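Workshop exercise sheet. Pairs work together: one partner reads the sequence aloud, the other fills in the structure field after running the prediction. Swap roles for the next sheet.
Pair: D.N. / O.F.
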Amino acid sequence: MLHTDEEILEFARRTRPVLAAIDAPLHLPPGRKSIDDRNGLHLRPCDEELRRRHIPFFPITLGPMRVLTVRGMSLKKKLESLRIRVVEIYPGGAQDVWRIPRAKRSMAGLLAGLRRLGLLGLTSKATPDELDAASGALAGQLYLSGDADVLGDFKTGAIILPKPRPRR
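Structure field:
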C-alpha cells in the first residue's frame, strides 16, 4: 500500500509502468479555471456519459471530491513528467459494468467477482481500497489491450471503463 504522493512517485520511478491508472478526477469541467472557480459548471463530458449509463458518481466539485481532484491533477502532472502515461479510472463504475457488487454492498461479492474475472493474488483480507485498486488496474489493462471504453476525451476529461459484456 502506498499512501503519499512521494511514495507513489518513487514506486513509479523504480518500476517504470507503461500506464498509471488513477482513481481520481484528472480534469476540471470545461470552462473552470480552478477547483474554486464558481462558474456553475460541475460536470465534464465523461461525467455526463456516466449519467447516461446510469452509473452513480459524485461530481468533482462536491466536498471531498474537490481535494481528490486537486491531488489527482497534481499527481498526473508529476507522473507525466516521468514520461508515464496516465488515465483516469473509476473502480465503482467498472464494477457496475462487470455486474459485481461494490465494496460498500458486499466485500465478499466483490472479491468473488474479481476472482471470476481472472484476478489472482487477492485474499479475503484485502481492504476495500485494495479491491478498488485491483479493479482499476484491470480496467487499465483492458484499456491497453483495446477492451475498454473511453468516456469523454483526453482533453476535457476521460474515464476508462471496461466494455460491457453481453448478458448471458
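Discussion prompt: The chain has a mean pLDDT of 94. What would you look at next?
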